[in-house]
Amino acid sequence: MKALVTFFTLVFCAAVAGVNLMAAGAGTVTQAPAAQPAGAQPAGAQAGYTLAEVAQHADAKSCWMAIDGAVYDFTAYLPKHPADPKAMLRHCGKEASEAFRTKDAGRPHSPYAAQLMQDYRIGTLRR
Predict the structure, then answer these.
(1) Which of 93, 97, 112, 126 has the fewest CB atoms within 10 Å, measured from its CB?
(2) In 3-state terms, what secondary structure has residue 73?
(3) Range 37-42, long-range pairs (CB < 8 A, 24+ positions)
(4) Both 22 and 76 in a single domain?
């Protein structure tokens, strides 16, 4: 009897492990790609935008900025910004390098902010 209980316990454990492996494998096949900010390019692709194109994205529904030759889509970041979103909104659709460097108050953004904004980069500024 003891051998029979041991046998069925092992079969049960193997079945549970198999189901877990199949579920884990199925999750990786059907998993959706990570969401990108609106307008984002696939990894490695760098679109070029003019300042006129950036200017078409000048509100909370679509907030692009040109900073130091790169173009960023900060639309999804606006509600996450630690300060009032109005601090960023007035720079949407514009060349905002000086505003980023000074926070409009003479203080620079942190190195963390500079690193974080790379997630929102969608291309380069064409002249």
Answers:
(1) 112
(2) strand
(3) 37/73, 37/74, 37/75, 37/76, 37/77, 37/119, 37/120, 37/122, 38/62, 38/73, 38/75, 38/76, 39/64, 39/73, 39/122, 40/73, 40/120, 40/122, 41/122, 41/123
(4) no
Residues 7 and 52 both lie in one domain: no
In angstroms, the CA 127 to CA 121 distance is 17
For the stretch 42-74, pLDDT in tens is: 445 579 999 999 999 999 999 999 999 999 999
Judge whether 106 lies within some domain: yes
Q: Say how many CA atoms lie within 13 Å of 74 toward its Cβ.
A: 32
Residue 37 belongs to a domain: no
Residue 36 in any domain: the answer is no
pTM for the predicted model, two decimal places: 0.64
